[in-house]
Amino acid sequence: MTDAEMTKATSGFKLPFVVNIEPRVDNPPKWYSPMLSVLAVVFALLIGALVIWLGGGNPWAAYSHIARYSFGSVGVLSDTMVKATPLMFTGLACSLAFRMKLWNIGAEGQFFLGAYGASLIVLLPVLPEDAPRWLFIIVMIVSGMLFGALWGFVPGFLKARFNVNEIISTLMMNYIAIQWNNYFIYAVWSDHGFQLTRMFQRNAWLPRLSDLAETMPFFRGLTTHMGLVFALVAAIILWWILAKSRWGYEIRLIGDNPRAAEYAGISIKRNIVLVMMLSGALAGLAGMSEITGVVHRLQESISPGYGFTGIIIAWLAKLNPIAVILASILFGALILAGREVQPAGIPTLIQGVIMVALIASDYFLRNRVTITRRQEV
Amino acid sequence: MAKEISGNEQLNVVSMLGVSKRFPGVIANDHVDFVLRQGEVHALLGENGAGKSTLMNVLAGLYRSDGGTIEVNGKAANFGSPREAIEAGIGMVHQHFMLVPSQSVTENVLLGLDEPRFRMNLSRYNKKIEEIAEQYGLHVDPAAKIWQLTVGEQQRVEILKMLYRGAEVLIMDEPTAVLAPSEIEELFKTLRSMTAQDKSIVFISHKLHEVMEISDRVTVLQKGKVTSSGIQTKDVTRADLARLMVGREVVFRVEKKLVEIGDTVLSVKNLKADNDKGLSAINGVSLTVSQGEIVGLAGVAGNGQNELAETLAGLREVLDGEIIVNDKDVTNNPVKKGIRQGISLIPADRTLVGTAPNLSVTDNMIMKNYDQEPIGQGWIVNSTEANSYASDLKEAYEIMVPTIETSVRLLSGGNLQKVILAREISSEPKLMVAVQPTRGLDVGAIEGVQKLILAQREAGAAILLISEELDELISLSDRIYVIYEGEIMGQVDDGDIDKIGQMMMGARLEHIEKEGVA
Q: What ipTM was estimated for this complex?
């Protein structure tokens, strides 16, 4: 071609291809966004492998160990599901709020309040000790959701009424929630001075698969509890609300352009409060299901950060309630089997890298990257 | 490659030959030739989506071309980034400014440069920038913060940014779209002083009269192809350009049928409201609009027109006075109630208010009736109904979009406005308030929008047309009110442009008539 291009091409080393990056002018294909999520996970696993290798370990052995101890048998699979259950709820809670661009960082606190609300039924007591199990479950669900919703209402109301930044308020509410529970664990319901309450009586426990072992021996020792069913139902309901309902449409519209929503006659303030309350109620359910399905008492360390992990899960699932289920199972496995490999460190690192990779991957949704062969001069 | 030397002794600073640029499904530029000579204002004319901005984005390094050759000052160039382009002396001022509101003019100009390295010696740079501003008549205080500046001043900062970086070629992407008439004059002066100092300017526009006024030569694009390359502006007429641009004859006068004027639909009495800053914006406005009538509201931007439109739709609080629609008091009604009563608003800002950019065409179409049968059924939104409703509207209003699933942010201005109009008109409004419905649209699209508004008048709607385009107001309206600082200066029935002009500057009709008699 021209002289100028010739000198440019011959001077210095050139890759045999050109990477072009341009802003997208069309919608990316439907499979594109899920693929990015999967790639983010793969990328995070590769980084994790690199770190394990640098530390002198064998990444392949570590990962196959994780896989074996999370999906390798019915027993461990059941344990994975137990870990995934609260994550599903908190993931759903975050997905809902994030759809409206409400940054609810307070699922952790709402989780604790949900646990408190459920414990209240047994420990206050609200119901007599020998009340039927079904009644316990229903009342505890309602109470757990109510307390979670209350913890969502406060920042929601503050934002709607006084335009208080919900990121700060929900984050701060987390600390209040944890101390609130501590007060009751240490002072009010302390079991013989220990920092935990008494064990709930059995009719206040969520049914587990192992309860069925007498008739079906296959289920012996399986800890998966009814909370999983609730989580799946919640995911389907939330999906329906977001995709099919009038309210879901309003949420999407407000999330994308609040001024357009206002112009369409939709009350933004009302929806901020409602969405924060439902988000809080879902996170509250996580606490309720964890306390009645797994721990069976109120104590200090009931959450290894389920509420915060919910944020990552929501992003990984691209705020899609059905995808939240899959993402939660993955994270359940990481939390459960990760402990087998290393109590902290690599599994947490992988979570973090997934989050960063996900946020970075938005770039590829907005831009088109093409790699073309460098034209011969 | 042989350099193309025209008979003119002027140097070709940019020559783009056979440049093509494809996007999925569309060819934005199809073998486009564009030659820019030194010291000229070269207009790039075309409808929205004709490929004007794409072509210039290729030149400015934002897009890569798929074919063709580009030469800058006789050297082959295909810039990989805006930085490379500006190093070669090509700077682009985009429609949407890229400025940091909380920082000063100087800080914005220096942003991203290698100098100053660490210590910001702002006062020294203030002087430098003032010198450049002086040289080209770009009046702006270098120490002022961006948020304190008017839109016109902000644009000057964008130009300064490019000049400071040593731009010899300045690409202006629809620079007048955001400016008031007086600011446009100012801009044209600046452009002329720049060409006098041997800078070259590409002026992207779809406004014919501006192109006629400012440009030396014109290149016209239509659907990605050049219909006329570099003709002398003085050799062509406005009608010629319109034909080249649209591909057919364009009627500048609209056909207005005789419509019988019916009952009063809107009656506003002594209305008062504040603007966003809490200052009085409308101060005792009274007006009426009847069935089958287009009533224009003329005024310089920012005299309370937007606030008036918002109070009518229920989006802004009425402090005093009343709004009656079809004998019902709708003062401070909730927005939704107004929608149900047949009040429709075409907002001034299509992207900020009128649509949700990332949602689909369908979702944007159903914004006003998602909770009404048959689309809204109890708690649910029936997506089958919604989709068929949206595709019907897409057909009826000839909205050019691949599918109704497409996000509306990918639509051109004209198509976006059609989405809004389709939505508003299909609700069969009793009262339609249209704010600047044709702003930023090209000739072909303006014609379409005006026809739709006239059709509403024939259908018996009462229409309040708020516009800054006097030509449009006079040709469409049955009568015109003029607003100045939140007060109605008077009403004109005969489209007397002089009277309207005087009232827009704050003279009351009574005074004008008195002086006329005297």
A: 0.82
